[in-house]
Amino acid sequence: MDGMPITGTQAVAIGSDVYWIGAFDPSLRSFDLILKTANGTSYNSYLVRGADGVCIVDTVKKEFQDIFFKRLESICAYDEIKYIVLNHMEPDHTGALPELLKRAPNAKVYLSFQAQGMLKGLLKEGAENLDVTAVTTGDSIDLGNRKVSFINTPFLHWPDTQCTWLEDCGMLLSGDLFGCHFCDERLFNDLVGDFRFSFEYYYAHIMRPFKHHVLQALDLIEPLDIKLIAPAHGPILREHPREYVRHYHSMSVPHLRREGEITEKTLLIFYMSAYGSTGDMAKEVLKGAEQVSGVRISLYDLEGGEMPPFVDLIEEADGLVFGSPTINGDAVKPVWDLLSSLCSIHTQGKLGAAFGSYGWTGEAVAMIEDRLRGLKFKVPVPGVKVKLIPTNEELEECRAFGRLIAENLTGTNAPRVIDFSDLL
Ligand code: FEO
To answer: Looking at ligand 1, which atom is closest to the CA of residue 232?
Structure first.
């Protein structure tokens, strides 16, 4: 490769008997409805040739299957295809699969255990007569002079995802992992334009909610002698591939609190207040929580903040409390804005709670609690609602509420006694 854009319909050699047979989609401006794609994207598919046959790894989005088949035909006949490996079942990589199966009807399909049900969902009755093998880490296909091995890397970013490893040439065909939406027809990372922003943006939106799964995958990937990473989107990483592995590691470990350095729990209280009542409640919630040792508590007025740094804080916090007045039967918009920003991080199992002042009916607290439960927060402490101005007794109730939240975080709360008469 001399840096010239790939304009024809030929397969592109990326190593010894390994070829890129994917498609460029330069016009795409948003992906999966949620990602902006200023540079479009590519759907990377690969062909691996061995002494005993050909293996196809992933396909392309259906609309791009014509160019995919032309590239494939430029390098092999359909009756040479012995195996089709599916690293990921999302339609941007399986769109051309039904047609490929028609053209190579004797090919055996290899995928992860988690992908089996998805294959049936994609092909419907067409899946019944297929020769399908579910594989996991350590399994491999023998192509005669080379092995095609599998590494199970679930939840990156679907349950089914896996990587394919060619040990003889040190190539990791990584699926969405290490990918990015950056269409540049010069194809290789040492030839394309600067794609650092796209790489990190893709990670932030696709992989970030699954950081702990990323770290588990890196445990399997880091020991490999990697010479090239061939992801399912964006540039092929042949120059300094390990730098991208290191960068993934760096983006996936906690930064605000490093494992083992801080043992205290962190509790964040976010509030908004129209006339000061919810703000007064927030300060008392903080005072109550401060009565419990081992908890670091922070108080933020949402009116004076931006969402991205708050999301960073929440990602590494143990507990999250929202204070909102009820206005027109709802919590206020910045609360919903922050809650809707949490889909990019892992929130399952964190502690959540809500409180607020109201004038008429006070729906906000229950609505926030429902949303927290929907995000898989634990909500063990019932919220506190105050009509208009809190009394001294109600402020004391706020302190007790804060203390109980902190005790739940530290595990020092009194065991719950169930009164069976409450169940009648
Ligand atoms: Fe590129 Fe998750 O599909």
So the answer is: 1
